[in-house]
């Protein structure tokens, strides 16, 4: 059992397609997850500004706010004191490597989290070329694209991987063997995605205890 | 007894499986306390049912009691089936592009053994509605609806469709399943109709098992799902499958 478990990818709020727990804290308590980086679902599925305001009003040290960044050409860069922002370029219809997104990310200087389904390897490579210091957390990488992910992790040293959906036999160990546990970050995507299986996996990884503890607490990213 | 209803061995071309081996599977099973896992070889699901089944039987022989064999039936290849030393038959209507209720599967149902079938909501081959058709035709054949419909938007519908067909069970593996949904399915159809499967090595055994281990279930329901239900199915057919039951349960 690891001492500190941080879920780098969690949601708070309602979703339009299911009746899921809106508050992550009871399940975090039940599963032994001490802290979570959370995004408000309203910011993803409804009004970005309203969702981010609701998130930033939480003021719970267990819930680290990850507001959604929606680059707007004619608005100022948000003045947020947060460690990470989330971008949804497909859903919110903007270019991850467009001039506004690049300008805003450069100004903010915080980690950018993006779901793999919201982007592409080409866009991630372009982002890393344009902003080589930009720290990127790739969410929901899944298990079917490990070959592409390996290329990305090789080419982009500032890319970290959330492992909640890396779900094929010993896939996490394979990644740790190639890139080191420090590049891997425990996260779940709950409650839309599953937290039970990934939480169990964390306690049963065939890796040195120090590596498991590192992954559990956010690799070298968080 | 902990029994995993849905497992595989071997590689699959769509993506990298870091450890597709039988030895690796058994090592993880030992670590987690899983008594046995029902396997079909992915070669059998893919292009060669006969050779893939041979590999599955060979793995089961190398690890006595740890692997139950779901022999794959390919309706195009019409490969031979046995009623000896197997858990039953695995069919994959989507890969084989043959609807679950197609008469070409009749040799499977006529065997009378449990059947595990891929079940995918909105698929033209394996939508849960087709399980109802088969269940009506063959009420004596235990039928595991693999993946419980696969897509989250289909889980509740799959449960509703099979509720009045007691020979159909929801098997819960899949990358979109959650511990929360397992509890909801158990509440909807009864925990005695939900069967644990992992889809390892296609998916990671630890995630599939852990999803049930940590699902918000009471201990009695968890025990049913983790093995009690499948043991009951295998025991029931053990007594009716013409006495050829060696290798069915550990």
From TrEMBL, chain A:
- Alphabetic keyword roster: Hydrolase
Pfam families documented for this protein: Amidohydro_2 (PF04909)
The segment(s) forming the Amidohydrolase-related domain are: 16-215
Mind telling me which InterPro entries this protein's record contains?
Answer: Amidohydro-rel (IPR006680), Metal_Hydrolase (IPR032466)
Keyword Nucleus assigned:
no
> SUPFAM superfamilies annotated for this entry?
Metallo-dependent hydrolases
Q: What Gene3D superfamilies does the record tag this protein with?
A: Metal-dependent hydrolases
Q: Record keywords: Flavoprotein included?
A: no
Single GO molecular-function term?
A: hydrolase activity
UniProt-recorded name of the protein: Amidohydrolase family protein
Q: What organism, scientifically named, is this protein from?
A: Nonomuraea polychroma
Its taxonomic placement starts with: Bacteria, Bacillati, Actinomycetota, Actinomycetes, Streptosporangiales
From TrEMBL, chain B:
Q: Which GO terms describe its cellular component?
A: cytoplasm
Q: Kindly state which keywords UniProt assigns to this record, in alphabetical order.
A: Lyase
Q: Where are the annotated coiled coils located?
A: none
Q: Please report the stretch or stretches of sequence annotated as the Amidohydrolase-related domain.
A: 4-234
Question: Mind listing the GO biological process terms from this record?
Answer: secondary metabolic process
Which GO molecular function annotations are given, in alphabetical order? carboxy-lyase activity; hydrolase activity
Q: Does the keyword Cytoplasm apply?
A: no
Question: In its UniProt entry, what is this protein called?
Answer: Amidohydrolase-related domain-containing protein
Organism lineage: Bacteria, Bacillati, Actinomycetota, Actinomycetes, Streptosporangiales
């Amino acid at each position: 059992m690891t001492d500190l478990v941080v879920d780098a990818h969690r949601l708070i709020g309602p979703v339009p397609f299911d009746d899921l727990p809106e508050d992550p804290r009871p399940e975090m308590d039940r599963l032994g997850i001490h802290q979570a980086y959370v995004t408000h679902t309203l910011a993803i599925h409804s009004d970005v500004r309203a969702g981010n305001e609701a998130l930033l009003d939480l003021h719970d040290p267990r819930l680290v706010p990850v507001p959604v960044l929606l680059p707007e050409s004619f608005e100022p860069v948000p003045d947020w004191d947060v460690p990470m922002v989330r971008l949804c370029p497909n859903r919110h219809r903007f270019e991850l490597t467009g001039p506004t997104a690049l300008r805003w990310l450069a100004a903010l200087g915080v980690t950018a989290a993006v779901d793999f389904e919201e982007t592409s390897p080409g866009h991630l490579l372009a982002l890393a070329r344009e902003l080589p210091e930009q720290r990127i957390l790739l969410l929901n990488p899944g298990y079917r694209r490990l070959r592409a992910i390996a290329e990305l992790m090789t080419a982009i040293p500032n890319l970290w991987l959330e492992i909640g959906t890396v779900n094929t036999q010993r896939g996490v160990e394979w990644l740790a063997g190639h890139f080191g546990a420090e590049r891997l970050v425990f996260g779940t995507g709950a409650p839309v995605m599953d937290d039970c299986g990934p939480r169990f996996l964390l306690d049963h990884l065939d890796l040195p205890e120090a590596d498991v503890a590192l992954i559990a607490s956010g690799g070298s990213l968080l | 007894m902990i029994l995993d209803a849905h497992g595989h061995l071997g590689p699959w071309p769509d993506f990298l499986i870091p450890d597709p081996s039988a030895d690796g599977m058994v090592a993880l099973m030992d670590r987690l306390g899983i008594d046995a896992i029902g396997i079909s070889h992915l070669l059998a699901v893919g292009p060669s049912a006969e050779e893939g089944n041979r590999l599955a039987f060979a793995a089961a022989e190398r690890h006595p009691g740890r692997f139950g064999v779901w022999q794959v039936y390919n309706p195009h290849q019409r490969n031979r089936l046995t009623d000896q030393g197997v858990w039953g038959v695995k069919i994959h209507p989507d890969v084989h592009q043959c609807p679950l209720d197609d008469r070409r599967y009749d040799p499977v149902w006529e065997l009378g053994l449990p059947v595990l079938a891929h079940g995918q909501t909105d698929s033209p081959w394996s939508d849960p509605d087709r399980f109802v058709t088969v269940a009506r035709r063959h009420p004596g054949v235990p039928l595991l609806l693999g993946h419980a419909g696969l897509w989250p938007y289909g889980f509740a519908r799959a449960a509703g469709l099979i509720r009045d067909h007691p020979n159909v069970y929801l098997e819960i593996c899949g990358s979109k399943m959650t511990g929360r949904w397992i509890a909801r399915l158990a509440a909807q159809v009864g925990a005695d109709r939900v069967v644990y499967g992992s889809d390892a090595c296609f998916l990671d055994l630890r995630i599939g098992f852990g999803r049930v281990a940590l699902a918000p279930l009471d201990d009695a329901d968890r025990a049913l799902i983790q093995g009690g239900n499948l043991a009951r199915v295998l025991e029931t057919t053990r007594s009716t499958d013409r006495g050829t039951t060696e290798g069915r349960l550990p």
